[in-house]
Amino acid sequence: MSKPAGSSDSASSGAEHPDADDHPERSARNARIGLWLFAAYVLLYAGFMGVNVWAPPLMARAPFGGVNLAILYGMGLIVAAIVLALIYMQLCRRRSPPVADDPGASA
Amino acid sequence: MIYERSLIAVVVFAVFVAIVLAISFYLGARAKSARGYFAAHGTIHWFVNGVAFAGDYLSAASFLGICGLIAFHGYDGFLYSIGYLAGWIVALLVIAEPLKRLGRFTFADALDNRFNSRGIKLAAAISTLVVSIFYLIPQMVGAGALIKPLLGLSHHVGVLAVGVVVIVIVVTAGMVSTTYVQFIKGALLVIFCAIVTVLILRRGLTTEPSYADRPFEAFRTLPASEMIDNPSARVLPETGGWVGQPYVRVRFDLPHVVLVWRRTGPDGSLLAETQTVTRTADGRTLVNGWPQGRGRNESDLRPVGHISRLPHGETSTGSVGPLEFFRVLQDSEIVLWGAQRIEHGDGDVTTVYYQKPTHGNDVLVPGASPVFRGVRSGNPLDKLDFLSLMLALFCGTASLPHILIRYYTVKDQAAARKSTVVGIASIGFFYILTLYLGLGAMTSGALDVTNSNMAAPLLARTFGELLFAIISAIAFTTVLGTVSGLIMAASGAVAHDLMANLLKIGMDDHAKVRAGKIVAVVVGVIAMGLGIAFEKMNVSFLVGWAFNIAASANLPALVMLLFWKRTTRQGITASIIVGMITSLAWVLLSAQTYKDVYGLPPEQAIVPFSQPGIVTIPLGFIVLAIVSLLTAKPTR
Description:
The complex is a heterodimer. Chain A contains three helices and no strands. Chain A is mainly alpha-helical. Chain A has a domain at 48-98. In chain A, helix 1 runs antiparallel to helix 2. The radius of gyration of chain A is 20 Å and the shape is elongated. Chain A starts with 23 loop residues before the first helix and ends in a 6-residue tail after the last helix. Chain B is an alpha+beta fold. In chain B, helix 7 packs across helix 18.
């Protein structure tokens, strides 16, 4: 079974506080992060489709580990989705902006 | 057939369904208000909700269909796994949070939040209803297919049983119980598939798969000369539909039987054993020339699926590692099975199932199945079919109404995000397992050559009757869970969007819940009817339909609403209607539908390829943009 890293539920809502999840700035920032990660995944997915369309014989080659590219790339896409989802969650959790959050850091 | 009705299966089944119903009744007491019924009070814990996402998503088609596709065609089934999971990235990174901010109960609410337009409500509710019903059909058909061999009931009874149990679940408790049913089912599915995968790897690969008390029966391939020299064998003349086909029919005297052999090898010098099923004009079923059954003077299909040659001439590898499993298969030769329909002039139809020894490396790359064969061809239009399906799977997930509705069952965006991540992790892990399960089934010697949907349960049976019973019961609860989620979405669309918001029928909370329950019963009855009517149709074909329609109708509206400020209500309404109608029409006019549904020659089909997504999804965006620009209010 799979569990996200650090699974404690500490999120609290309340739109006034800048760290609240539904604060407009915070939402905009999360949306931006989401779109960047999405773009990365689209490239990966398009690459898979591209190899299948333009160079199908490549799929039968075994680049390393003795396992062919089709399996490595396919499994890779699934693992990449899980990893991106975890990265996204981590980035969204981080407090923004860090300076206001931790006065000692810049002094 | 390959199935025997087993007492353990019936008992485990009954226990599963009883537990599910008990949860429903127990939690039903908690759901009194409309928000409680349709959105579980927004109080479901994110982890439970995340696993429930997996439960919702891993439908009968995911579990039975993908395993079956991989078991019969190799890697191509795995393409579905990849596409289905990739869709979650769209859902999480692009749609999830903005949507949670906008909506309350349903997809239509979210779209309508900015405009309060009756046109949008109507269009969105209809598209929710259409997609839900199209997604319901394959689930019901799958339920019937499962029940038939497991419990020895007819397809009709299977569909009715699922329908009744689901209606009871939905009517008694709504979203809370649906969520917990999905949580239990999702968790069990992933855990037991992981157990079966470990067992597959520990058993390793062998050229003579045998299990329980059933020894492996090899399918023979003999030199043609041996057949001619055999004094008790007589080659029958080619008559009826057999003329000009690569088959030789041989009558043996002891035991008295007619077997069909397929010519193979260079210049047809080898004969390979086949299995035949003949449906006679007067409605009888003959297997290898005998009435189907297990008694005297009866014959039945033998289980199939084995490795004909392992690397280095081994007969068995012993336990293998997860990567070694693929390495060994790549260098082996696996016997896949093809099917050919032969019509004899007198109304009898014979289906010949013949051996197709295939090199492992051919099985483990895309393009081995009829659906994706185009990938290996030189015709660019065939590749469009592959690309279009991959696009529809990518875009379809975020547009499925019963997936979207789950964003509303947790308390805030952070929780929605966390539950989606849990969902992606469990679904992704499961999809990785499908490749092992499918390939394990392919080489297990236990497959039913006529029914790919049963590959996963039959694989489980090679590890014992109990595991078989459990996996089958999980598959059945899979159907129950998905169907109840879909009926919830449909009943929300009608009761909340159409009746309360559009027709302005004044309803208090209780009346709304009652209306939702009545609608759930009606939709459930419709689904049962369709499940019976579509018995013969291919399950994954129907699921592809639902994904294409969902993506074409809903995705442009969702994405543009969230990211384009000049979107107008007319633009959204137009894109939903155009996307829904064009994708529906395209599918109805495609070669696959001509062949499988109308029984017409596929060459007559009007559209050039079967999957509409690559045309109709962009079309939805274009329509939305043009209509929005035309109807934009002059701001200054």
